Task: structure prediction
Amino acid sequence: MLQEKLYEYLLHLGDNSMILGQRLGELCGHGPELETDIALTNISLDLFGQVRNYFQAAAQIKGGDATEDTIAMLRYEHEYKNVYLVEQPNDDFAHVIVRQFFFDVYHQLLLNELIKSKNETLVAIAKKSIKEVDYHVDFSSTWVKRLGDGTEVSHEKMQTAVNTLWRYSMELFNATEVEQWAAESGVGPDLDALKPFYISRVEEVLHEATLTLPEETVFQYGAKTGRHSENMGYILVDFQYMQRAYPNMKW
Amino acid sequence: MLEISEEIEELLRSVSDPEIPVLSIMDMGIVRKVDFVDGTYKVDITPTYSGCPAMDTIGDDIVSAFNNNNLHAKINLVLAPAWTTDWITERGRKALEDYGIAAPRSAEVDKAALLGEANTIKCTNCGSVNTKMVSRFGSTACKALFQCNDCHEPFDYFKCLK
Ligand SMILES: [Zn+2]
Result:
């Protein structure tokens, strides 16, 4: 029973990084400039590396034929536990950066708590990942400031992205049953307690970037429990294509 | 410190990072432990970055190196304690510099350089410290891209990871 919950919790942790990693991977060769292209794909690679660690641990719990690949590739849409934020499309560079920034700030707060987890595997993964995610936060914050406090056009595009994406931010802190279990048993953090820190960090950077959070927001919840947006189907078609077309293929 | 015989050390020393061929895995500090159990060498290695695509290749290369000497090895990937650039040996730092990659500096110097607050990273081509960061992420996750303001050559800097 406990192991089952831990398995589910590992999926929560892994799925966010995996779907965001996939979104960033779509940009490979399409970044606005070479250096940014490389940075975004490097961040994608970091995220996929972290996902491998979570899913290897999950596969061990599941046993049988389960591997990191079957967990990543062979679930149905409603079985993925990622939030709406990470499945949002790469509409333009402003959306890519704001999505990244909103996730990175959460990711850093989360990992800084996970290093205190009662679960040793999670501690090891978090200690490894946090070093990488510190760089991600630096990268996305720098771009938020540069573009927000940039030209009139870049400012407007960034403000539009903030207005569009902010509604998906609070889902990160809306604990599911499994995340509540994790908090109560000392495996993961109390997400609600992280929220004020999150908002103040986001506001700090936005303020420097001369950007503001929208005044009234109707926050969106539900992806974590499997009710994904239309985007998710398209992501999975791409992501799972090889395994669906050629079951059990290896390379 | 690793407790291994000279023979095994030499063998492990022959394996290098496929992306930085001049750097032996021993000098990179990714070999954490070697145990000899029931005729098999169990080699613990740790990744530099979670997503480092070289880890599988490095594991295979270690196994082949043992096989070529009629020995058996098994690879075990460990995550804790997490790798840090402090584990790169002096010899490793020298190899990096000779190869054209600036070796990692202390956390403080690193931060100042990456934030563009101080010019401290030495150009691997002409030795000038009048250099600037072009991108925080370079050809691989572990490196940042720099350019020299004097000789104008671009070069990689191995980022400090603590
Ligand atoms: Zn130079």
Summary: The two ends of chain A are 35 Å apart (CA to CA). Residues 2-245 of chain A form a domain with the Ferritin fold (CATH 1.20.1260.10). The pocket of zinc ion is lined by residues B 123, 125-126, 128, 148, 150-151, 153 (CB under 6 Å).
